[in-house]
Amino acid sequence: MKQISKEVYALLRGIVNKREKAMKVGETTNSDLLGMLMESNFREIQEHQNNKKIRISVTMIFHEVLRLYPPIAMLPRVVYKDTQVGDMCFPTGLQVVLPTILVHHDHEIWGDDAKEFNPKRFVEGVLKVTKNQVSFFPFGWGPRVCIGQNFAMMEAKIALAMIL
């Protein structure tokens, strides 16, 4: 099965490479779906050909969508033992609510364009853009993070691939 998968991948990669070469010499190849998709992205590919970091991936787009429109607006938690954080004391049983949407739109964390759709902010990964702070948590954080996070991301990517 792996051998078949490798052969199919090699054949598809060969078709795409052949189309790329044709596009570089000026031949139009938009007579089918592959040609139309390649032509629509050709200018951006040419602009950023040598800079792989600039290319926007589906994951970056999903991260930005989840940042702007998190699936949960607030994360409620209950303090299970007396906790001291700086000058503040949180007694046992206190309910703490973390407003996900406010953190994801904070100008101090995300910059002046915090309310704008900009997937390129995730070029170097989530940790780099958040400056190693816990400020991106669309599925929660820590031991109570959503166990379906990876499944949801994969499902979204598959759904998008099927639509395109």
UniProtKB/TrEMBL annotation:
<keyword id="KW-1133">Transmembrane helix</keyword>
<dbReference type="GO" id="GO:0005506">
    <property type="term" value="F:iron ion binding"/>
</dbReference>
<dbReference type="GO" id="GO:0020037">
    <property type="term" value="F:heme binding"/>
</dbReference>
<keyword id="KW-0408">Iron</keyword>
<comment type="similarity">
    <text>Belongs to the cytochrome P450 family.</text>
</comment>
<dbReference type="Pfam" id="PF00067">
    <property type="entry name" value="p450"/>
</dbReference>
<dbReference type="InterPro" id="IPR001128">
    <property type="entry name" value="Cyt_P450"/>
</dbReference>
<feature type="binding site" description="axial binding residue">
    <location>
        <position position="146"/>
    </location>
    <ligand>
        <name>heme</name>
    </ligand>
</feature>
<keyword id="KW-0812">Transmembrane</keyword>
<dbReference type="InterPro" id="IPR036396">
    <property type="entry name" value="Cyt_P450_sf"/>
</dbReference>
<keyword id="KW-0472">Membrane</keyword>
<keyword id="KW-0479">Metal-binding</keyword>
<dbReference type="GO" id="GO:0004497">
    <property type="term" value="F:monooxygenase activity"/>
</dbReference>
<keyword id="KW-0560">Oxidoreductase</keyword>
<dbReference type="InterPro" id="IPR017972">
    <property type="entry name" value="Cyt_P450_CS"/>
</dbReference>
<dbReference type="GO" id="GO:0016020">
    <property type="term" value="C:membrane"/>
</dbReference>
<dbReference type="InterPro" id="IPR002403">
    <property type="entry name" value="Cyt_P450_E_grp-IV"/>
</dbReference>
<protein>
    <recommendedName>
        <fullName>11-oxo-beta-amyrin 30-oxidase</fullName>
    </recommendedName>
</protein>
<dbReference type="InterPro" id="IPR050665">
    <property type="entry name" value="Cytochrome_P450_Monooxygen"/>
</dbReference>
<dbReference type="GO" id="GO:0016705">
    <property type="term" value="F:oxidoreductase activity, acting on paired donors, with incorporation or reduction of molecular oxygen"/>
</dbReference>
<keyword id="KW-0349">Heme</keyword>
<keyword id="KW-0503">Monooxygenase</keyword>
